[in-house]
Amino acid sequence: MFEMEENLKVMNCFFGIDRDTKHNESDWEFCLRCCLAKVNGDIDADWSEIVEHFHLNCHPDTLRKNFVGSMGVQHVAKYYEERALKQQVEDEPSQAIKELEHKQHELWKERQKLKDERSNLNRALRTEARWERVLEILQEAVESYEYDEYEYLISHRYEGSKCEACLLLSDWHIGSKFETYLNSYNTDIAKERMAKLLQNSVEYCTLHKVQTLYIEILGDMISGIIHVNNRIQACENVIGSTVVATEMLSKFVYEMSKVVPQIKLVYCVGNHGRVNADIKESLNEENFEYLIKYYMEEKLKNIPNIEWLENNINKEVCFFTLANGRTIASAHGHRERRKYKDAVKEYTDYSGQYHVDEVHLGHLHNPQLIYNVVVNGSMMGCDEYAQNMKYHSVPSQVMRVYDSKGNFITYEINLGD
Length: 417
Description:
By secondary structure, this protein is an alpha/beta fold. Helix content is about 40%, strand content about 15%.
């Protein structure tokens, strides 16, 4: 660009700009820095003074033209400097940026942890408050209800044979009340139908001299609150229904225990008893029907020929094996979604220890026998929803009697008028 005269010494200071001796700045580099300072207005020197000081072999105007303009040395140098800096930032972020990003990530994680902890705490507090209110209302209902006193007498009507039976009780929906063209239902009607069911159950057990009767209580014994809007009023109503259902079931089991030598109770909750109407927020443990079982255990605990079977694998499913070796899986049925074809295999695989021969379910309100799946009817029969959907079923419950050879007979007990 320009040449310096050889063998002429350049002073180390020019208009207040010192040579960078620490980094061994050459005469040419020192001159270039001073020229850029002139262009930037950092020094008040003339171009002629630069030429003279640095012994340059060029005219001052030639030197000036080389540094000014859009393609001058100043702009070219600035362009490459900015480009190099930008490339460095893109290719290799500075340590400060890396540390900042790391701190941002850590802060986000801590905020998320705090959010999750608050959500879990709020959920636990809501659950605790909900059950506290439920227990308060339940205590009030229990204290005001007049219970029947049970004085157990051993008065079996026959000497048991090797026959066993399963009686499916489900979908009583105590608390529901409606009147349609096809059907009517309320608590009084439910009690009448239970009396008819008791009469038929005693008749069939006596006919076959049933030694052991498995009473399978398969859920939706109360109407619940899943289809109502007023939560407080609904909670009070469902507590009342829970107390009534407990008394009805206890009385039924007690009466059967006076006829059949051995009673074994199976208990599975349904979907209508859940405390929260929103299924997405409902927890498995939050179900009014667990209260029914609790109070039934208290009422029936002194009757010697009644035994409760435990749901060891899942609270909502019970596995048990008859004396003839036939294994049964019982549940309410709201989680099967009508996929009955593979139900026996699925319950066998799920248990990991039982070879299931048949499955007993409720929920559909219509007795059916499908692929070794026994589906129970309902106590209330066809309601408004079923009528609107053009479904029809009579009030019924199912009993299946087994002999020691594995043969069985199924009764659909009609409870209608």
